[in-house]
């Protein structure tokens, strides 16, 4: 993947927004899990949310953290960053 965001200020702002979006998506999956919807609806929705979170994490946040490791949250594992 080509470099996505080189500007540190822009990366910081985008990082904060993507973390908030991830939190909201996770909360929506929790609401759905406890809803009166059918098991099939729950499964389908939670699967889509999982796909979205994967894209946000793997394709966006990891790329930001590779370029701007100072933004890496405590406890966040970044593959290939030597955190083992």
Quick check: average pLDDT? 92
Residues in helix, %: 55-70%
> Unreliable segments (pLDDT under 50, ≥5 consecutive)?
none
Total number of beta strands: 0
Largest β-sheet summary: none
Structural class of the helix and strand makeup? mainly alpha
* Strand proportion: under 5%
The general outline is elongated
- Could you give the distance between the termini? 24 Å
Protein name: DUF86 domain-containing protein
List the helices and strands and how they pair.
Elements lengths: L7 H26 L5 H29 L17
Helix pairs in contact: 1-2
Structure in words:
- The chain is an all-alpha fold and 84 residues long.
- It has one domain.
- 65% of the residues lie in helices and 0% in strands.
- The chain contains 2 helices and no strands.
- The chain has helices at 8-33, 39-67.
- Helix 1 (8-33) runs antiparallel to helix 2.
- The longest helix is centred in the middle third of the chain and has 29 residues, at 39-67.
- The two termini are 24 Å apart.
- The mean pLDDT is 92.
- This is DUF86 domain-containing protein.
Short description:
This protein has helices at residues 8-33, 39-67. By secondary structure, the chain is mainly α.
Please describe the structure with a list of short key phrases separated by commas or semicolons.
single chain; DUF86 domain-containing protein; 84 residues; mainly alpha
């Amino acid at each position: 993947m080509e470099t996505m965001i080189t500007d540190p200020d822009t990366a910081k702002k985008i990082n904060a927004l993507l973390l908030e979006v991830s939190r909201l998506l996770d909360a929506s999956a929790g609401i759905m899990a406890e809803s009166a919807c059918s098991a099939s609806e729950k499964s389908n929705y939670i699967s889509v949310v999982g796909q979205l979170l994967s894209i946000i994490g793997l394709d966006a946040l990891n790329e930001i953290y590779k370029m701007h490791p100072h933004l890496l949250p405590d406890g966040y594992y970044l593959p290939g960053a030597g955190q083992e």
